[in-house]
Known about the structure:
- By secondary structure, the protein is α/β, with parallel strands linked by helices.
- It contains 14 helices and eleven strands.
- The longest helix has 17 residues, at 265-281.
- The protein is globular, with a radius of gyration of 21 Å.
Amino acid sequence: xxxxxxxxxxxxxxxxxxxxxxxxxxxxxxTIVGQKHLIESLLIGLLSDGHILLEGVxxxxxxxxxxxxxxxxxxxxxxIQFTPDLLPADVVGTxxxxxxxxxxxxxxxxxxxxxxxxxxxxxxxxxxxxALLEAMQERQVTLAETTHKLxxxxxxxxxxxxxxxxxxxxxxxAQVDRFMLKVVVSYPKxxxxxxxxxxxxxxxxxxxxxxxxxxxxxxxxxIVKEIYIDEKIEKYILDIVFATRNPEEYGLxxxxxxxxFGVSPRASINLALAARAYAFIKHRGYVVPEDIRAVCYDVxxxxxxxxxEAEATNLTPEDIISEIINAVEVP
Length: 331
């Protein structure tokens, strides 16, 4: 009985503390038309302290979305345009000799910001990609012998263009795994595109006013950690994850030859974290199976390895995830 009371009290507290989500969403919608899923994914990454990989053709407001979010949160923002001639020092910084002080000084790179837009990450060579991914994982950068902490919150939004393969360096599977979510951004609907045209040919919009501080985000993160996950939900997460590794145990023997390798334990952790953040966005103090299903595709799509057979039959990771979600028993 006490647990029911606790959840009620937690629910009321979460409802009150998550009110800023609506304010933030309204602010984002003033600049970005449609793209509801993209905005929700950004909020999940922000609340769960996870990074996001965005895939979509150019011109779908990927850059605009993170810039708008940074403006609404009174946070620092950096955009790094990845090119084949970029060096690791261009991202993390380097040591420069100061004649005045007669010593080397750290010149910090653009990575020292709260929000980083790594534009077209697959255009840069492996050395630069790994410098960025190391900073994402360790939340720090070492220049010479000194280690510099990166600011908190620290959110990397990396974009990659799926249509051009010439002159690109695809991210290795192990590095893609570092991203909490991989979000596929699609074209807007006809009505949305009409609004986009009107918005861009109309009078210039007013500058955005911050509605939140960094402290508000850090406080929200600690509250998200309190959201209740039942043991049945934990079992549901594990069943989904293990179905990618041993599909035959879940009546999905036909997928065994289609999956080269299943998802890593990072997937289980991120499913739980993302579901908690999603519940928070929906003003709820507990996780339900719908939350898991809502974040499942973005958490798993870049972690499932497809076999040659799957690629030959044009089977996508999304198809496999759909099969698994339909087969695994819902608590």
